[in-house]
Amino acid sequence: MHTPHSARNTTVFFLCIAVFGIVFDVNAVCSIQRSSAPGPALQISGTAFSVICSTVKHSKESGVTEPCSAADTGVMVLPTAERRGRTATISAELERADRLFDRQEYDKARRLLERLLPSRPNDAEVLWRLSNYAINDGDAVRYGSGDDVATRKYYHTAVRYAERAVQADPENANAHAFLAASYGSYAMYAGGKEKVKLANRIRDELDIALKLDPRNQVAHTIYGTWHREVADVSWVERQLANVFLGGMPDGSIGKSIYHLQKAIDIAPTVLRHHYELGKTCIAAEKKKEAAQAFRRALQCPDGWKVDPWRRTRMKEWLRDNT
């Protein structure tokens, strides 16, 4: 029987909500990630609107501006010697930005890297940090004022920076991890078919990141959330996606737990890792384990602008379920 076009669109719309309604909380990758530049590693986040690639595409399906490919950015890949041979001054500035973020002086950290960018326009270490900073600020707006226009701009900026970082240094695990993170955040504002494409791109970028660095906690924590959200798609919804949207990837609650536990093993004081593990345990109907994960999360320091919001949600759940 022929399905009316309007009914089909409605079905696809609800499918998209089911798949990406929460969109990973990737926006909340509140993690401390080791830099490939010399010096101590610190936390990452902030905002940035300078240097967005000029090529803009539009989704035929939704009219929403969509991420450009790395080739569209016009970024030149740095020779290995140049991208590895940063001066002591540049390395010190990266460390200083990380320390500022660690002290939750997010805007100062962002402004420092924005000042550094003109002299290092193709430096992946600068670019992936700026991507992360934009995700952090987008989260703050999303869970604060709820301004969708401003949130979308931040996430779009995050994608641009991360794509440039990958183009500048394809061997940088953090660049791939934050490209996955920015795709996850941006997916909320993409059309149905683009959402499914992004789900596959996220998986691909995480696979690359973990191949380059098996202990990349950002990649592990995002993969944990990705597996939970994709596993939650029903058989019917998955078949609809396969027919109308080009095919859904497979997810697993077991793999979600594996990756989140791996992230915790690498960085046990990151609130986001425990919080996401708790959410996966709820999805698996393991309330006891969820409560344990949330209690551990509440003992961790804030690392991102969204962490106070998370604390409130966890306390509410614990109050109502324990």
Folded structure, characterized:
This protein is an all-alpha fold. It has one domain: Alpha Horseshoe (Serine Threonine Protein Phosphatase 5, Tetratricopeptide repeat). It has helices at about 5-20, 80-85, 90-100, 105-115, 125-140, 150-170, 175-185, 190-210, 215-230, 235-245, 255-265, 270-285, 285-300, 305-320; strands at about 55-60, 65. It has a two-stranded antiparallel sheet with strand order 1-2. A hairpin with a 6-residue loop joins β1 and β2 (about 65). Mean pLDDT is about 75; it is low at about 1-80.
- Unreliable stretches (pLDDT < 50, length at least 5) are 1-82
> What is the CATH top level name?
Mainly Alpha
Structural class: mainly alpha
CATH architecture label name: Alpha Horseshoe
As laid out across the biggest beta sheet, the strand order is 1-2
Which descriptor suits the 3D outline? globular
Q: How far from one another are the termini?
A: 49 Å
Order of helices and strands: HEEHHHHHHHHHHHHH
Radius of gyration: 19 Å
Average per-residue pLDDT, rounded, comes to 77
Count of β-strands: 2
How many separate structural domains? 1
The number of helical segments is 14
CATH topology: Serine Threonine Protein Phosphatase 5, Tetratricopeptide repeat
Major sheet attributes:
2 strands, antiparallel
| The CATH superfamily title | Tetratricopeptide repeat domain
